Amino acid sequence: MMKVKTIIAVAAFCCLMVSCIKDEAPNKECDIESAWIEGEEYAEYFYQPTEMRKDNISSAETNIVFTVRSMLSLPKQIPVSFKITSGATIEPASGSMQDFTKGPVTYTVTSEDRQWTRTYSVIFREASLPFEKYSFEHVETQAVGSTNQMHVFYELETDTKSGSETAERKYCWATGNAGAAILKYKAMPEDFPTYSTPNGYEGKGVCMNTQSTGYWGELMGKPIAAGNLFLGEFNVDYVMVDPLKATLFGIPDPQEPVRIIGWYKYQPGENFTDKDMKVHPERKDEASIYAVYYRNVDEQGNKYVLDGNAVEDLDKLKDNPQVYKIARVASLPATDTWTQFEMFFEGKDAPDDIVKALGFNLALVCSSSKSGAQFEGAIGSVLYVDEIEVMYEK
User: Fold this and answer.
1) How far, in whole angstroms, is CA 129 from its chain's centroid?
2) pTM of the prediction?
């Protein structure tokens, strides 16, 4: 009987999705799928040739950012080419010369039937160093979906001459909240797996909690959503087809890290469940904090990014030829008071010239459930983190 109910529910869900698709106007798509710089003569302005191309641009993204060595030496006319939705048009034209030294250039994509448009900002920006300390004092509330709001963490750039903060925001932290939003309605920031808390170790901090995804989430074999926070990006386009591919870990780092310290609080949930929501009394949920320093270009010269599939087993990750160093907190005992954690990087040394050319990424990942990526954990597990500091070789 339960199997019959499940089949009926799945059918109802599919009908609902088909109905939504049918209600949309035909040829509504007006997306930029890829963007790249034409001409080998422009390669000298980038740290890596792979930075001259942006593929698999998320349908939720409206800013396309190219990282260059210096804005002062950047030519005033650069051609950016685009792959857009079939049948759509773009203005200014793909491959046309544009001046990006004065700020973002706006491109408008129009659907084939001319009924829908979407604007993008293409931005050229100097590479900036990762922060050595993250205090999580800066947070903004953003809309996600049509009814929900979530917290997004950012850092403020520091003027190298004065040492004071500037107004430029750097969104180096990501969460899986956009994926959780698919199954939420009128959710506020505190309703999501990851959000800002005013009660950090110093000032504000980050709260991550493992939640139930409800009836539909359980039906799709994704019964829980663990709170997570990581350096990198989250591509919501992969949430339904390959959730582990949605988490893109790491940002370029021109220094070789040796140690990371920070502060945490943690309490595991009561009942550990697997992806079928079967309770395992013999298992206790664990939080996870780890970091990976890896080469961001493969042997063929292609851009390489660690995703959830690559870090599914940290013990096997050390055999990945792209990975040079791994650090992990051995254990995070339950505690209601702020407690310091520490982890050291172990592995092989990275070539100094490639490091300085931004050829390596630093991935730093925190999660309220260690096996949350496999949809295993305990609903109610809560991890707080604050004042994370990355220490480098001098």
Assistant:
1) 18
2) 0.81
